[in-house]
Amino acid sequence: MPQNDASTAPNVDARKLVLEAMATLVNVKRIAADRLLRPAGIPDSLIKRFLKGRDETTGEPLTKRQAGALILDELEREDKEGAVVRKLLEIAAGWTAFDLAQDEYKARAVVQKARELAGTLAEADAREKAEQERGARERAERHKIEHEAMQRRESALLLAQFDQAALDGEDPQKRGYLYRTYCIACFSCTGYPWFAHFSATLELSRSTEHSNWRVGIILLNADGARVQARGVLKKELLSHLRSKRTILRSKHAGLNGDGRGQIKDLVSIRARPAAVEDRAVPGHWEGDLLAGSKNSYIATLVERHTRYVMLAKVANKDTQSVISALIKQAKKLPDELYKSLTWDRGKELTDHRRFTLATNIDVYFCDPQSPWQRGSNENTNGLLRQYFPKGTDLSAHSQAHLNKVARQLNERPRETLQFETSAERFNACVASIG
């Protein structure tokens, strides 16, 4: 160990006092070895020299003081003297076996000095430790200031892109999707004052209709906080979000060889009537498949006007199974409340013409890589992951359980509905058609 370490470096006064203790506290060498040297961690090879060492000049046995000095010199060469001296000093400071000494009064004087010196060294250790901790705090504070300054500088470009995204186009669903994308990218810092508030707000958002991106926008404006884009969420933040994704997928991921874009006779979302687009009337739905392990899926349907949710158990992803499940679900509703269905370009709807012939419901398909065109369904799928985490077997859930989950979502107050529930709005629509 380094000789300048206050906890192990030998002190001149301490060395002298330890030698005095070896010579004074115990009269018999062998007892001194057992009561002082071994408890201090001195190896047996050196203890043997302490017991049997002789003066090279006279051949006489070494005194306890002389033998002790030789031991400490040897330990000094091995860089172990400081720790042994401190341990011997502690033993001496707590010594009570004065009956082993030849001169009890002298032994008591040595013990008193050992106690005083041990207290002095302990105070010195405490001061040095406090100084080291203060230095470490100052370095950490400087690093924090420099790090936050760097984050604010680097976030300027991100915020410019974020603000631009807010103004991109007239489609509110697309703007919402982009907001969420940028928020997920930028929440990589937990060192700002709003982090605790962020956690608390997210707890509240579990029972309201704040989506991840909306909470993010609120908090980006709190306390003037600005954060840096990293692309990956901290675990502390991730644990609060409904979506557990740590990083956004590439928009090109998963499009190779799955048959997307090969659906025959599809009708583009661009041909959808304006009444569907502005959510003015009920009866227009968005749909998708929620995927689980072991090739298990749940069909999710969301009504655009009321945000009413329906879930359907499907056997697997093939178009025959999915279309059959959708037809069965559609027959549960009045015709006036199921006029159109908007889906992505998944091949599970390849047989969409059979669905339309069986139900008289028009099917529209989103543009490629445009999830915001089914914004209500995308957000609902995020909520459903609270009930059906990724990687779990969805086939284990009965249709009755799916209905229970849908009912819980439909009975949840929604800010976009002026804090009415989807069930209340949908029931009002049902009542209005008699």
In short:
The protein has helices spanning 12-24, 29-37, 44-52, 64-77, 81-93, 104-166, 172-186, 195-205, 212-220, 235-238, 274-277, 319-330, 352-359, 375-384, 399-410, 422-432, and strands at residues 284-291, 297-303, 309-314, 340-343, 362-365, 413-414, 420-421. The chain has 434 residues and is of the alpha/beta class.
CATH class of the largest domain, named Alpha Beta
Number of domains: 3
Treating each run of at least 4 consecutive H or I residues as one helix, how many helices? 16
Ranges where pLDDT stays below 50 over 5 or more residues in a row are 1-9, 188-233, 247-261
Strand-pairing-aware structural class: alpha/beta
Main sheet summary: 5 strands, mixed
Strand order of the largest sheet: 3-2-1-4-5
Give the strand content: 5-15%
Report Rg: 39 Å
Distance between the termini: 89 Å
CATH architecture of the largest domain: 2-Layer Sandwich
